[in-house]
Design goal:
The complex is a heterodimer. Helix content of chain A is 9%, strand content 46%. Chain A contains 1 helix and 9 strands, in the order H-E-E-E-E-E-E-E-E-E. In chain A, the strands form 2 sheets. Chain A has a 5-stranded mixed sheet, with no helix packed on it. A 4-stranded mixed sheet of chain A has the order 2-1-4-7, with no helix packed on it. Chain B is mostly helical. In chain B, helix 1 (2-25) packs antiparallel against helix 5, helix 4 (65-101) crosses helix 5 and helix 4 packs antiparallel against helix 7 (176-204). At the A-B interface, helix 1, strand 6 and strand 7 of A face helix 2, helix 3, helix 4, helix 5 and helix 7 of B.
């Protein structure tokens, strides 16, 4: 698998460095809920979402609107890049606990 | 319990549909079950390995390892399906002829179906790893009985499996000549869809621009969350809001496979009189 990741890496030699000036927002998962459940970000701007899972169980951060799906294991955190986005509301959810883990990003 | 059912259903669905088409496409090929079985085994082991190393994958490549890895798997699967279709096109005619001659089964002629094994394994990896992670989480925390959870999971997987069986049964109703054509083109669309999905992952990692997001929006007609939408995603790569890059990769994959099919079927035609 490592080899696959490496092969993918070679295909995209210029995997861009995450520029430090990209603003970061943290979303915490606790008791299968997102906190904050609503996050406001500016339009036409690239944003870094740091999703920290404080539960013991894994969760999958998923959004059809944002076209993102990423697993975050219990007690770990992941980074999800979003944007630049047009103004609007973009829903996201936790695929493993969709009943409670719901949230949205409001782009203004 | 219903969450377990739904997750297992959704994650197994893609695999079941692809397996159904592959089973139909390789009908009559001697030893195909061995190759498919080998693929299933590879898929299972790969899923476990990915689930175990999920952290390391995640942290790789400045935190974008998961996206790059998923994109890589999908791209490889897309390539291998394309390869299989081209191979089928080349040998399919031969196969159909033999099927007519010796009844249903091709008894001799060991066909190298390792590409099928790889396709089956690759299309299990992503979803399989997700199932493993989800189930370990559920089993670690739930108050429900182990039996109830297992039953829900098995029921979900079985329902998805039934849809895969349905597509298989539908395809084998076709005459062998039509079946090869239909399954072949279905697999081409599966491969294009996977290429488009991989583009979305590479864009999510920031390695590819999105070009336009979305290029169009048909969610008013058919949303990704709907039952039909989620079945059409693995079959034809349906997404209600594709990016420009996804559309580009879809089209590029389609053109590449179509050209490869054209080129590879040519020598087979000229060889036919000699072979007969």
């Amino acid at each position: 698998m490592k080899r696959f990741a490496l092969a993918a890496a070679c295909l995209f030699v210029a995997a861009p460095a995450l520029a430090d000036e990209v603003p970061a927002h943290t979303i915490v998962i606790k008791d299968h809920k997102f906190e904050p459940a609503t996050l406001e970000i500016p339009a036409d701007t690239k944003v870094k979402l740091v999703i920290r899972n404080e539960d013991k169980t894994p969760e999958e951060f998923e959004s059809h609107d944002l076209k993102r799906e990423k697993i975050v294991k219990g007690g770990k955190e992941i980074t999800v890049l979003v944007g630049p986005l047009k103004p609007g509301t973009y829903k996201f959810f936790g695929e493993f606990n969709p009943k409670t883990a719901q949230g949205e990003i409001v782009v203004k | 319990m219903s969450a377990t059912f739904l997750i297992l259903f959704r994650e197994v669905l893609e695999m079941a549909l692809i397996l159904g088409i592959i089973m139909a496409a390789t009908r009559g090929v001697a030893g195909r079950m061995r190759w498919i079985g080998l693929g299933l085994l590879g898929g299972l082991l790969g899923s476990l390995a990915i689930a175990i190393s999920a952290d390391r994958i995640s942290e790789a490549m400045e935190g974008m390892g998961q996206e790059m890895f998923n994109g890589g798997i999908l791209l490889a699967a897309s390539f291998m399906i394309g390869w299989t279709v081209v191979w089928m096109k080349k040998h399919g005619r031969e196969l159909a002829q033999k099927m007519k001659q010796v009844g249903q089964a091709v008894k001799d002629g060991e066909m190298p179906l390792y590409s099928v094994s790889v396709v089956v394994a690759l299309s299990m990896w992503r979803e399989g790893a997700e199932i493993v992670l989800f189930m370990t989480g559920v089993l670690a925390t739930t108050e429900e009985s182990l039996l109830a959870i297992m039953m829900a999971g098995i029921a979900g997987a079985a329902c998805a499996g039934m849809l895969g069986a349905l597509i298989y049964l539908g395809l084998i109703q076709l005459s062998s000549k039509h079946m090869f054509t239909v399954t072949g083109w279905l697999l081409v669309l599966v491969a294009c869809g996977m290429a488009a999905q991989s583009a979305a992952f590479f864009s999510a990692a920031g390695a590819l621009p999105e070009l336009a997001n979305p290029l169009w929006d048909t969610s008013w007609l058919l949303s990704d969350e709907s039952w039909l939408g989620s079945a059409l995603k693995p079959l034809i790569g349906y997404t209600a809001q594709p990016t420009g890059m996804q559309a580009l990769w879809y089209a590029a994959a389609f053109c590449l496979i179509a050209v490869a099919m054209k080129l590879s079927s040519r020598p087979a035609v000229s060889q036919r009189p000699a072979a007969a």
